[in-house]
């Protein structure tokens, strides 16, 4: 497999965690979203992913984009360890939390949006994340065990940790979100989350390396 990734992209990080958890070795092709006006806009990359976004994964003779679609494919082809619970209710809760983050929070503070917001981009990102985290904190109080849903790492957790990293980057006050903070702390202690972390990627700038 070949993963087209950017070290700081939260969508790419989700997929890197899934690959690490399932023990799938892969090659990385870095796509710098800032350099050269954004390498994702090159004709070469557009041929791979017409949406001109990372991640994209070349695997089993196909090219997949969209992080959750990639994770679902990995789940179906490499079932262990499981990232979606067998219990239908828990499975629905995992998908709900994942969608909450990938549809309701992350796109609103994405690089392409922040470029259009201009000077007030930090304030905009803080508001978007805080609004989403207020709801997420309430949801997790009903679903969480050690992790987002019960005591097993799931697709919801793969979305949570990168989003908390975004929140910290935009200096969001995490005080009002003790459940999110506790789960994230536990996740960052897991090896799969460590090796896939933005501070440990081949394209991580020297000053941001762990």
TrEMBL record:
Its cofactor is glutathione. InterPro entries: Glutathione-S-Trfase_C-like, Glutathione-S-Trfase_C_sf, Glutathione_S-Trfase, Glutathione_S-Trfase_N, GST_C, GST_Zeta, GST_Zeta_C, GST_Zeta_N. Keywords: Cytoplasm, Isomerase, Phenylalanine catabolism, Transferase, Tyrosine catabolism. Gene3D superfamilies: 1.20.1050.10, Glutaredoxin (3.40.30.10). Pathway: Amino-acid degradation; L-phenylalanine degradation; acetoacetate and fumarate from L-phenylalanine: step 5/6. Residues 87-206 form the GST C-terminal domain. PANTHER family: MALEYLACETOACETATE ISOMERASE. NCBIfam families: maiA. This is Maleylacetoacetate isomerase. It comes from Grallaria varia (variegated antpitta). The gene is Gstz1.
């Amino acid at each position: 497999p070949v993963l087209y990734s950017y070290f700081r992209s939260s969508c790419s990080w989700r997929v890197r965690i899934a690959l690490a958890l399932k023990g799938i070795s892969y090659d990385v092709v870095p796509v710098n979203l800032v350099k050269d006006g954004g390498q994702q806009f090159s004709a070469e990359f557009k041929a791979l992913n017409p949406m001109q976004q990372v991640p994209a994964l070349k695997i089993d003779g196909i090219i997949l984009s969209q992080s959750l679609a990639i994770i679902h494919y990995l789940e179906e082809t490499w079932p262990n360890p499981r990232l979606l619970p067998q219990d239908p209710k828990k499975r629905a809760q995992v998908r709900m939390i994942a969608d909450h983050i990938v549809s309701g929070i992350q796109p609103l503070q994405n690089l392409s949006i922040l470029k259009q917001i201009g000077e007030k981009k930090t304030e905009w990102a803080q508001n978007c994340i805080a609004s989403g985290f207020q709801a997420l904190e309430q949801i997790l109080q009903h679903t969480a065990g050690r992790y987002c849903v019960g005591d097993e790492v799931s697709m919801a957790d793969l979305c949570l940790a990168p989003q908390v990293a975004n929140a910290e980057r935009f200096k969001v006050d995490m005080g009002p979100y003790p459940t999110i903070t506790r789960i994230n702390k536990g996740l960052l202690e897991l090896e799969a989350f460590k090796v896939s972390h933005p501070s440990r990627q081949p394209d991580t700038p020297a000053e941001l390396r762990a």
